[in-house]
Amino acid sequence: MGIELRLADYALDGPGNARAVAAGLANAEWYRTPIPRKQMKDLMQRSDGPATRDTLIWIGLLVLFGGLGAYFWPTWLCVPFFLAYGVLYGSSGDSRWHECGHGTAFKTAWKNDAVYQIACFMMMRNPTVWRWSHARHHTDTIIVGRDPEIIAPRPPSLGKIALAFVGVLDVPQSLGAMLRYATGKLTVAEQDFIPVGEQPKVFAVARIWVAIYAATLLACVLTRSILPLMLVGLPRLYGAWHHILTGLTQHIGLAEDVLDHRLNCRTVYMNPASRFVYWNMNYHVEHHMFPMVPYHALPKLHEAMKADCPAPYPSFWAAYREIVPTLLRQVRDPNYFVRRELPPGAGRLPEPVVAHMQAAE
Amino acid sequence: MADGWIDACAADDIEEEDVLRFDHAGRTFAIYRLEGDAYFATDGLCTHEKVHLAEGFVIGTLIECPKHNGRFDVRSGEAKGAPVCINLATHPVKQEGGRIYLRIG
């Protein structure tokens, strides 16, 4: 298959969608590690405590580093403070958006919603569009033609992946989308996964955001300084690197079109600072298999199911020692991917499902 | 049983604040036991993407879908927000002699 034809398969309105449906890969039954109901109920328990603590620390650090950055602006002394502020804004915003979008971070609904709206604004992701996009990502994880969140279609564009670390491609796209939503327009793909009744919310939020960015730009003009943009908007560029560093470990280079999250997600052990920024999404197999378990319970869930999963990656380094060579090879050979090995005794998908997947592959 | 009531399970088969799957005549249902031994029943599949709700999580009077975290009020079947938009069908339930009976509409 030609490269352009292969890439076209990834579009939700392309030929891959119908092919996935016909192959039984859309909205399918996925493998789940058997965990006793009582234990699972304990793991699913909601609590406001951990997320309230983490959010107070997060907002406190944003105020502290943002304040110090502004105080020392425009001297070189502001640089370390803006580096820290940027990560808290342009990378922590990603995990807060994600967890609060699932509604599991806090027990109290309005707290989830409030942090979700703030984090969506920081990440320039329309809260309604991304709620539905992410729902599809969980239904059809890395199913070609169905999952709108496949970030490295094969063959991968190494340039695009590298530029994502500073947001220079996705931020202009996000701003363009915001302006499009503000005029009341959705793409065909967005119409595919956002119900009609939800679409007015997309447009309303986009108009509020346009007003906020317009006010920020006006503040820059009035103060003759880009400091307002350093605090609102630009951190999505200069602070994006950490969420890309962590996000690329989730699925890149692993199998497409399999109905088993153990084969298309990575669990990677990370340092405590990255886990705070990333809200434990390094336990990604666990999160995908059981999305109703809150981020703060994922380490316990990991212990409960690790005997049924491929070995976790012990570090960023270990994950990237696999990811980088895989991406380089996929540029030349788009059919190549990393096959994760299940441990002896691990549960398996029923044979007819495996045979069906292999036929589709 | 008379009057269309179907013997579904023992009352003790469901823990408090939990849910049980019940399949009958080619259909699937979810039976809930809320705090204070109040029992309710709904269709068993989420109206969003046909996932079994019995694998989800009961929070107060809500059932949360295990796949996308959509929530329904189990007493009325009301969808409580994205990604669920369509209400869930509910079914009458009664407790008698330690058994739970369901009447399917």
Structure in words:
The complex is a heterodimer of chains A (361) and B (105). Chain A has 361 residues and is mainly α. Chain A has one domain. Chain A has 21 helices and no strands. In chain A, helix 4 (49-72) packs antiparallel against helix 5 and helix 6 (92-102) packs antiparallel against helix 7 (109-123). The radius of gyration of chain A is 21 Å and the shape is globular. In chain A, 43% of the residues are buried. In chain B, a hairpin with a 2-residue loop joins strand 2 (18-24) and strand 3. Chain B has one domain (2-103): Rieske Iron-sulfur Protein. The model of chain B has no long low-confidence stretch (mean pLDDT 92). Chain B has strands at residues 5-10, 18-24, 27-34, 38-43, 57-59, 62-64, 71-73, 90-91, 93-96, 99-103. Chain B is mainly β. Chain B is globular. Chains A and B meet through helix 3 and helix 8 of A and loops of B.
What topology does this entry show?
The complex is a heterodimer of chains A (361) and B (105).
Chain A lengths: L2 H6 L6 H8 L14 H8 L4 H24 L5 H13 L1 H11 L6 H15 L3 H13 L18 H7 L5 H13 L5 H6 L5 H25 L3 H5 L3 H4 L2 H11 L9 H4 L7 H7 L5 H6 L8 H8 L10 H17 L18 H10 L1
Chain B lengths: L4 E6 L7 E7 L2 E8 L3 E6 L13 E3 L2 E3 L6 E3 L16 E2 L1 E4 L2 E5 L2
Distance between the termini of chain A: 13 Å
Q: DSSP helix count of chain B? A: 0
Tally the helices of chain A.
Answer: 21
Total separate domains of chain A:
1
- From the 3D coordinates, which CATH architecture of chain B would you assign? 3-layer Sandwich
Sheet with the most strands of chain A?
Answer: none
Radius of gyration of chain B: 13 Å
Number of strands of chain A: 0
Q: Tell me what portion of residues of chain B adopts beta-strand conformation.
A: 35-45%
Shape of chain A: globular
Do you know the CATH topology of chain B? Rieske Iron-sulfur Protein
Q: H/E order of the elements of chain A? A: HHHHHHHHHHHHHHHHHHHHH
Helix content of chain B: under 10%
By helix and strand content of chain B, what is the structural category?
A: mainly beta
Q: Strand order within the widest sheet of chain B?
A: 2-3-4-8
The assembly state of the depicted protein chains is: heterodimer
